[in-house]
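Researcher: Here's a chain I'd like modeled. Treat it as a single chain, no partners, no ligands.
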Amino acid sequence: MNEESDDWIYDIIPEDQIESIQESFRNIRDNEATQINLVLSAPRSSAIDLCKTFEKSMKGHLASSVIIIKFMANIIDMIEEELHANGINPYED
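Model: Modeled as a single isolated chain. Structure tokens:
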């Protein structure tokens, strides 16, 4: 009886569409359940300099903004490497 009660959905939604929906849900679950860990370490003086540079960039200081963008680019590179190592292209939909 349980098998019969599960088949009603196919009268409303085609089976291939249900499979596509299930696959989408699996991808969402996997994307949300899998964690990417990044470890950043720096001497305290460098951490303080980074905070000061960020503050200057937020106030419009162009050279500081470039430094912050380069810093973020390095973090993104690390994330991309981790994703690629797991067979994931972050730019593929």
